[in-house]
Design brief:
112 residues, 2 domains, alpha+beta, 3 strands
């Protein structure tokens, strides 16, 4: 081979460097595999998306501001999943339906 040093001391140095490099690569692979396993466990442990969501107003006792379908991209951070009857009751009581996901249509609620 013409790309390697011709003497033993430099070959030993190269061998040591390659062993250290291989060890670093294997540690990095192990770390990335652990991160991927944690990500997968997190996805498996994630609770299911609720069918209906009430977006709550600011403040402890403020009324809901919108009814959403579960998974709506417009749902705010202050929200909670609710059963179908609670979402329908909220619409009947005047809580607006989200203009993006239109839960009133999905619930079969016609105003008035």
């Amino acid at each position: 081979m013409h790309d390697l040093p011709p003497d033993l001391p430099r070959l030993r140095t190269l061998e040591t460097w390659l062993a250290v490099s291989l060890d670093r690569v294997r540690r990095q692979i192990g770390e990335l595999e652990r991160h991927e396993q944690e990500r997968q466990r997190g996805e498996q442990a994630r609770p299911p998306t609720p069918d209906w969501v009430l977006e709550l107003g600011i403040g402890r006792h403020s009324p809901p501001v919108y009814v959403h379908e579960g998974g709506c991209w417009s749902t705010g951070k202050r929200s909670r999943g609710v059963p179908r009857d609670v979402a329908l009751r909220a619409l009947v009581e005047g809580v607006p339906a989200c203009p993006h996901c239109r839960p009133d249509s999905a619930l079969g609620y016609l105003e008035g």
